[in-house]
Write a structure and sequence with these properties.
Length: 336
């Protein structure tokens, strides 16, 4: 993503391995697409496909074509030209269209819509009435009418979840309490990074659900905070209290989960004159915590309830080596 950002006017990071770029004002988009692909391959070793089109949905379809016909296209497809666009639309099955899932594909087949071309030619208002406004917008995008804008900044999450499987089954509450505190700390880091506050937290635990010889139990509880907060200490206290309500002895637990709910940006909560608010001292403490961890590494400074190397930690024997991010895992070459 850093490579792409250095070469295009604007970029929307869509997922870990996909992005939309704004190529407005670029004289030769096809040549830039080839340069983007070559540069990413050179600097990261990751092969990519590049799709160029006037709308997001068409760009996704062009990207699929670039991967499907990589030998003929060199991994870069430009369908800004109407003739080339129509050729790709007719060759692509409707399930290749962004946002059209397996179930919707079956519904569209009942209306004789089997290719991207068929969907583009269908009446937009009929699609809205029969299916949804999403399908209508998809059809309009396939015709070249942009309905989805480029989002350079990702919108804040409405919920934040942190959940892990335990490395071993846990039967006592103490290690589960440590895991809950650990997951709260991680979730609160994400909460503060997007500038949000949380009003409710849900804590849940469960046993393994697939072993017929194990007793099964799953339970969760939502805890209401006294005021909107991003204070790890406060949220941990309420989450741990909630854990005490749902924990039952006699079970072998395999997983715990923390879910931060009712998230708002600062200033979006409507309080009355006498409502309790988060102390300024708490905000200063959390800022110092984040600054230290950003500079010296995650976990450098942490609440006392969060262990450094817990015995219940997730098993990672099969984890791929981090060749490019850890000095101790760099490849070694022996010359004989």
């Amino acid at each position: 993503m850093t490579v792409l950002e250095s070469m295009v006017p604007a970029l929307e990071v869509y997922s870990i391995d996909e992005a939309f770029a704004d190529l407005s004002g670029i004289a030769d988009p096809l040549q830039l697409g080839r340069e983007l692909r070559a540069q990413v391959l050179k600097l990261t070793g990751i092969p990519t496909g590049v799709g160029i089109a006037p709308t997001k949905t068409l760009a996704k379809l062009a990207n699929a074509a670039a991967k499907k016909w990589q030998r003929q296209t060199g991994g870069v497809v430009d369908i800004c030209d109407p003739g080339r666009r129509d050729k790709v639309l007719k060759a692509m099955p409707v399930e290749e269209v962004w946002g059209i899932g397996r179930r919707m594909t079956a519904h569209l087949a009942g209306s004789n819509i089997t290719t991207a071309w068929d969907l583009a030619q269908a009446d937009a208002w009929t699609l809205r009435k029969q299916y949804s406004v999403v399908v209508e917008k998809t059809a309009r995008e396939l015709r070249g009418t942009a309905c989805l804008e480029l989002e350079e900044a990702a919108p804040p999450r409405q919920e934040i979840c942190c959940s892990r499987m335990f490395g071993t089954r846990l039967t006592t509450i103490e290690p589960i309490r440590e895991s809950v505190a650990t997951y709260v700390a991680r979730a609160c880091e994400k909460l503060r990074s997007q500038g949000s506050l949380c009003k409710r937290v849900r804590v849940s635990i469960r046993t393994g659900m697939f072993n017929p010889d194990e007793a099964k139990y799953a339970k969760g509880v939502v805890c209401e905070l006294p005021y909107p907060s991003d204070d790890t200490r406060l949220i941990t206290a309420y989450a741990v209290a909630g854990l005490g309500q749902i924990f039952r002895a006699g079970y072998a637990y395999s997983k715990a989960e923390i879910l931060l709910l009712d998230l708002r940006q600062r200033g979006e909560f409507t309080d009355d004159l006498f409502a309790e608010i988060q102390p300024e001292a708490a905000e200063r403490v959390m800022n110092v915590l984040d600054q230290i961890n950003q500079r010296w590494g995650r976990g450098t400074l942490r609440p006392a309830s969060v262990p450094r190397a817990p015995e219940w930690g997730m098993r990672r024997e099969m984890k791929s080596p981090s060749f490019t991010t850890r000095w101790e895992e760099l490849w070694g070459v022996r010359c004989r």
